[in-house]
């Protein structure tokens, strides 16, 4: 078992918990509001849910860094491993498989999804990416770590697939720090 | 063993929190605080550039930007925790105060619980969350109490 | 690996231990914070914000009632008001929050009012209401849940959430939640959920005494 995985398990055992059904139903209530306010324009709904996920992502990353004692990830592969094995486990209690496609892209595969516990998409809602919240969370969290990424659901049981797959493509690695202002010319 | 002040600087160099941690802490006015915050932010970056020894990519072991970790002066010790997300948690204390690093780490955790989960807190803005200040005070009291009792 | 039946109605409702599935409290807190912010951006007043949170909770309450009824081996529909309230303050609370509510009280002044008290309401665990928001309680969501459960069970009621300062030495006597607690300092306020039943519910219940 990798360090990232065992770390994830330990963290999961320690953190205060909440009922996943309450979590799922609360998300359902939020989705209902967004759908209603968007007049059922599903592309708008997807965008809005992704933005809400982004808002969560830019916040939860600090909690992860503060509480997880995860080592500094120098490569995207290490980051992907920690994201899938430690972070997802710590926050959602789920086991995620990380598949590296290339130095700039990876996928997260998982079965259990606490967001969609009671959900089935009606016929006319096939365009709705129900769990797109995760994509926003990942995009926000990685942006705080200087990765600008595109994040998409590639597979979803709500659309008939066996499993969930989220694909992450790195568009840009940003340099950071106020130091740039003070570098010698 | 006395903690004096806490201040927090966001990634743009703006001061988002300051708090006296003890009645012994000198009074510092609001404008002075703002100056302290932005000055420290700049000095942190300058120290990195001026350092004769550079770490790989200027990042320390936790991946955060390298910079001022500690300032020792006659009357005080200053320690800074720089997060990978660019926030600086800074605590000053009387010389000889132990466990400042632990206090900084705990304050970072309190920030993630009491500010980042508060729907009324806006990122990068001054932290006014009562739960945060109450929890910081409780943390300092606990640290000072266990130091007095010699508890480890 | 077994493929789940396509039709959601054929899939097991994960009845046996499903109610035990967890997420971290943080995940719930971030999600709830977004729900609060979402509503906050669309209202003009504090009372409207509370009403919207109650409304969001109402649907959750209805669904929780169905789930718990389905799962419980000996669920009998409650027909007495006190039993319905106890169902909420024990069964529903334990399922949602890992422990029963701290107390269930009847109002001394109003025959149609009851109070459910929680010393550590989940929804306000990490929240600091700014002073210019007055008496806002973000636990209004939990009021909505209560109202949904009660209404679904045939006991329609108006439920509101109130943050009440704890008295000197007042604290919960219940064992801690089995969901683990945070390391934050003890709270200074408790949540009181005021349940005001509709007149016809009270009449109906009184009628059963005769």
UniProtKB/TrEMBL annotation, chain A:
GO terms for cellular component: endoplasmic reticulum; Golgi apparatus; TRAPP complex
Keywords for this protein: Endoplasmic reticulum, ER-Golgi transport, Golgi apparatus, Transport
Subcellular location: Endoplasmic reticulum; Golgi apparatus, cis-Golgi network
GO biological-process terms attached to the record: Golgi vesicle transport; macroautophagy
Endoplasmic reticulum in keyword set: yes
UniProt entry tagged with the keyword Transcription: no
One Pfam family cited in the UniProt record for this chain: TRAPP
Main location as per UniProt: endoplasmic reticulum
Record's subunit section: Homodimer.
Protein function: May play a role in vesicular transport from endoplasmic reticulum to Golgi.
Protein family: Belongs to the TRAPP small subunits family. BET3 subfamily.
Protein name per its UniProtKB record: Trafficking protein particle complex subunit
Species of the source: Cylindrotheca closterium
Automatic annotation (TrEMBL), chain B:
Domain of life: Eukaryota
Subunit structure: Part of the multisubunit transport protein particle (TRAPP) complex.
Keywords (A to Z) from UniProt: Endoplasmic reticulum, ER-Golgi transport, Golgi apparatus, Transport
Protein location: Endoplasmic reticulum; Golgi apparatus, cis-Golgi network; Golgi apparatus
GO biological process: endoplasmic reticulum to Golgi vesicle-mediated transport
Main location: endoplasmic reticulum
Source organism of this protein record: Cylindrotheca closterium
Protein name: Trafficking protein particle complex subunit
InterPro entries per the UniProt record, alphabetical: Longin-like_dom_sf (IPR011012), TRAPPC (IPR007233)
GO CC terms, sorted: endoplasmic reticulum; Golgi apparatus; TRAPP complex
Keyword Nucleotide-binding found: no
Protein family according to the UniProt entry: Belongs to the TRAPP small subunits family. TRAPPC4 subfamily.
Gene3D superfamilies in alphabetical order: 3.30.450.70
TM region(s), chain numbering: none
Protein's UniProt keywords contain Zinc-finger: no
TrEMBL record, chain C:
Annotated InterPro entries: NO_sig/Golgi_transp_ligand-bd, TRAPP-I_su5, TRAPP_component
GO terms of biological process kind: endoplasmic reticulum to Golgi vesicle-mediated transport
Localization: Endoplasmic reticulum; Golgi apparatus, cis-Golgi network
Keyword field: Endoplasmic reticulum, ER-Golgi transport, Golgi apparatus, Transport
Record-level GO cellular component terms: endoplasmic reticulum; TRAPPI protein complex; TRAPPII protein complex; TRAPPIII protein complex
Domain of life: Eukaryota
Pfam family for this entry, one: TRAPP
Subunit structure: Part of the multisubunit TRAPP (transport protein particle) complex.
Family of the protein in this entry: Belongs to the TRAPP small subunits family. BET3 subfamily.
Protein name in UniProt: Trafficking protein particle complex subunit
């Amino acid at each position: 078992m990798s360090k990232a995985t065992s770390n994830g398990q330990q963290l999961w055992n320690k953190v205060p918990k909440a009922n996943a059904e309450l979590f799922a139903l609360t998300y359902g209530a939020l989705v209902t509001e967004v759908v209603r306010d968007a007049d059922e324009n599903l592309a708008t709904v997807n965008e809005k849910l992704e933005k809400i996920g982004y808002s969560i992502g830019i916040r939860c990353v600090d909690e992860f860094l503060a509480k997880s004692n995860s080592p500094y990830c120098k490569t995207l592969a290490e980051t992907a491993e920690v994201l899938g094995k430690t972070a997802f486990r710590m926050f959602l209690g789920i086991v995620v498989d990380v598949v590296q496609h290339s130095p700039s892209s990876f996928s997260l595969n998982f079965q259990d999804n606490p967001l969609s516990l009671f959900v089935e998409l009606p016929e006319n809602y096939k365009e709705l990416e129900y769990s797109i919240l995760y994509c926003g969370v990942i995009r926000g969290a990685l942006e705080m770590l200087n990765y600008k990424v595109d994040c998409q659901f590639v597979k979803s049981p709500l659309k008939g697939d066996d499993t969930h797959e989220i694909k992450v493509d790195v568009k840009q690695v940003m340099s950071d720090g106020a130091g740039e202002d003070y570098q010698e010319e | 063993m006395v903690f004096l002040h806490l201040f927090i600087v966001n990634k743009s160099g703006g001061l988002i929190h300051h708090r006296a941690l003890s009645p012994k802490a000198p009074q510092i006015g609001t404008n002075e605080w703002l100056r302290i915050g932005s000055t420290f932010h700049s000095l942190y970056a300058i120290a990195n550039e001026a350092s004769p020894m550079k770490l790989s990519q200027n990042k320390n072991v936790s991946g955060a930007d390298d910079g001022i970790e500690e300032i020792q002066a006659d009357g005080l010790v200053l320690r800074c925790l720089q997060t990978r997300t660019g926030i600086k948690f800074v605590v000053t204390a009387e010389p000889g105060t132990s466990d400042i690093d632990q206090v900084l780490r705990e304050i970072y955790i309190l920030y993630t619980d009491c500010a980042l989960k508060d729907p009324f807190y806006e990122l990068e803005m001054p932290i006014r969350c009562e739960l945060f200040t109450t929890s910081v005070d409780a943390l300092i009291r606990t640290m000072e109490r266990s130091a007095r009792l010699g508890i480890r | 690996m077994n493929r789940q039946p396509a039709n959601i109605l054929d899939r097991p409702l994960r009845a046996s231990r499903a109610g035990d599935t967890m997420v971290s409290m943080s995940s719930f807190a971030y999600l709830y914070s977004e729900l609060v912010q979402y509503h906050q951006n669309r209202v003009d007043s504090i009372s409207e914000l509370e009403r919207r949170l109650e409304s969001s909770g109402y649907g959750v309450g209805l669904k929780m009632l169905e789930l718990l009824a389905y799962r419980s081996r000996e669920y009998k529909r409650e027909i007495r008001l006190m039993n319905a309230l106890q169902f909420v303050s024990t069964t529903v609370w334990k399922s949602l929050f890992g422990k029963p509510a701290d107390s269930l009280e009847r109002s001394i002044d109003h025959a149609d009012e009851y109070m459910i008290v929680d010393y550590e309401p989940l929804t306000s665990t990490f929240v600091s209401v700014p002073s210019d928001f007055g008496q806002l309680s973000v636990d209004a969501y939990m009021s909505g849940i209560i109202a949904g459960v009660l209404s679904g069970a045939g006991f329609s009621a108006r439920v509101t959430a109130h943050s009440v300062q704890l008295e000197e030495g007042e604290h919960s006597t219940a064992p801690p939640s089995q969901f683990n607690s945070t390391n934050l300092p003890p709270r200074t306020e408790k949540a009181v959920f005021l349940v005001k039943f509709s007149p016809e519910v009270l009449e109906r219940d009184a009628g059963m005494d005769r």
